[in-house]
What does this fold into?
Amino acid sequence: MNYFIGVDVGTTSTKAVLYDEHTNVIKRFSQSYPLFRHPNGMAEQDPTTIVNAVEKVIGDAAQQINFFKERLLAVAFSSANQSLILLDQAFRPQSRLITWADTRARHAANQLKRSALGRQLYVNTGTPIHPMSPLTKLLWLKEADPELLSQAAYIGDIKSYLFCRFFGTFKVDISIASCTGMMNINSGDWDPTALNLVGIRQEQLPEIVNGTYQATGLLPKAQARMGIPADTPFIYGAFDGALSNLGVGALKPDTVAITIGTSAAVRVITDHPVIDPHRRLFCYAVDNHSWVVGGPLNSGGDVYQWAVKHLVTPSAFANEQVDPYTLASRVISDVPAGAHGLLFLPFLGGERAPLWDANARGSFFGLNNLHTRADMLRAVMEGINMNIATVFKAVCDLVGQPKSITATGGFARSRVWRQMLADVLNCPVDIPESFESGCLGAVTMAMRSLNLVNSYQVVQNFIGEEDTYRPDPATVAIYQKYLPLFQQVEGLLSPAYSTIAQLQENGAK
It folds into this structure.
């Protein structure tokens, strides 16, 4: 028997899935680690902890393989994008890993976004101007800690750092590079205008390679810790969002993929770069020949978790002898669509698409003395879905109305949420059997790298059964009345977000 290991390096954990050569799941593995946060917007990780976690899950998966009789064909990688790490001449960390969730660059991002240069950089790179991007993080560091930045010999991300630790080479896949705000989407190389802005040289950045690129020759220490043959190919893969599309078979412009986990995203794959004239969406690479267009949202499952924590009392789910999320779903299902005229804007921690405003904040609109906690719970779930709908509409405006939607993520465990998504979007929603779409996408890319398949389309054979949720016409009619109001309120409140964010920041000091 031959095997693959798909690895997904995330914000709070690294997952690995051991597949056989037919992509049947043998076993899953996971290793968690902390995300260090501060009220000033800091969101960092310890790079050594992540290296240890990756080695651990690969090693755990490898223990299931009898290398005397069986073979590990490849290890393939998915990872979160838009991370930043400063390295010295020997590629040792000079900083913790600054993650996509870090918002300390918000003031630098706001200034750049309002400028003509900001618009040009968006056109050049396909990356919206926002504190999530390494471009604006470097611009912030240039102002906030110029000495630290000047001492950095190299600048990388979590995947280029991992591969450097494992193989002693400094490379990055085109998918991750395209998310930095510093890669020109037309040339496929680092953009001189972006590098000049932040004051770094191309030699300080990793070499850009295709996602199917193979690294071989594990360094002895890494090989010993993972317990796999040193000549095992490691495939660079892509960023998690692109591979999630690939892993659910959403490979054409007529199929939109929606992921709702801690955060959320709406994405569609095209065969050429597409730039949104309104700057609502990103355009990133999947590999050298395909591109993913869409929008990431901060407001996903974490907002729902906040609502359940504060609106469902412990005594209630203790009496019902169920977990709080199961109880919340029951409560929400008993409240009519529209939550008795209550809207919720889910921007608890700023928002990326469609606002691209790190200062955005959440709010209930329409609250009166007749509303209950049950109404508020439903409004929160509806607000998350309505926000997704605004990004979905932007994607449709750019590439056309899709024939189907495939949705994955932790939300898929809730039947109420699945149906609500179909009703709010007014489109059938397919829920695939497999939830680890990023790992499956990475393994599919590995199979293409090893010439075991001719096309990514083969993933359609691996997905398994799907559940389809069709919109209910009566509920759709209700949401069609609320969606324009949701967007109107969003627009009315936007000018006030910077003021309230500043007041909150001052209050936290």
In short: The chain has a mean pLDDT of 94. The radius of gyration is 22 Å. The first strand starts at residue 2 and ends at 9.
